[in-house]
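Hey,
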Amino acid sequence: MFLGTLLKYYAVTTDFGTSSVAFFGTQLPTSAAWASFGFAVFGVGYEMTGITVSKAMVRWFTGHELALAMGIQLAMARLGTAAALSISAPVARHFTLSTPLLVALAFLIIGLLAFLVFCVMDRKLDKNGQGMEENSSSSDEFRFSDIIVTLRNPGFWLITIFCVLFYSAVSPFLKFSTKLMVIKYGVDPDIAGFFSSIAPFGTILMTPLFGLVFDRFGRGVTLVITGALMLTAVHFGFSLPMHSSAIAIALMVVLSIGYSLAPAALWPCVPKIIPLKCLGTAYSMIFFIQNFGRAIIPMFVGRANETDPSYTTSMLIFGFTALGAALTAIVMLYTDRKKGYGLQLPNIKKA
């Protein structure tokens, strides 16, 4: 991630003149090509980090408040998202275009140092014999056949499809929402980012709370369905011909609740379906397939924006994508009852 951000900083601060690069039949300015390459490198690191952190959380907190732990971890991640959405544009406008990238580089160095400290703690846990017993038996060692076992699991595919649809309706929208606030709702460009950051800021408080609810009371798939339906209602609400900034704020607040509910209950469900030895592979495949949706949906939205400057079509695309996620979660609930995964059961059993 540090290397990718460094490449993007190089792209932004270097004068390439009028040179361009051929890319899929179009000509990209050289600066844009380098920036895209840097963002791609950053994305690879981001996915590697997500897989590692998710596996580590399960390894340390299984049998304890796993959903709460994952909720706190997601909340910290959302804090970074909210900060990026809210301050990047004002900082770039009042300083230089490269200043937000310098801030990102500084935080990435801090994050790298924090992970190195964690690695020392993790090894110490193993040496003290306190780690999970995933390596205690040769029968628990990872085999490539485990990939086939994972792919044959219907619960894995339902979670994967849900992630594709749900995150395709959230992540691209958050990047697009600042422009939506400015053009459709007449929000000042300097504060439009704060409107967009309502959702990630809200998840900072609510995701750990909903994770605690799941740990204590269960109903994980019910929480997932509720979050997806709230997201659907928000996107269809943004498609209506209403231009009040107060309505936009209300919809973003509801979005923050739905964006907290679904992930807080979804990610702790994965270890209930996938064995620990296959968990890293499962997370990597989920993220891999999920990114196809996060790449394709923005293409459709971009083309829709060119033909419909009111953004109604774009919001309908997001809305139907979120509705597909909700329907997938309903199928997940039926499968859980049939297969007995225990997705509706609390993580912490009462004494």
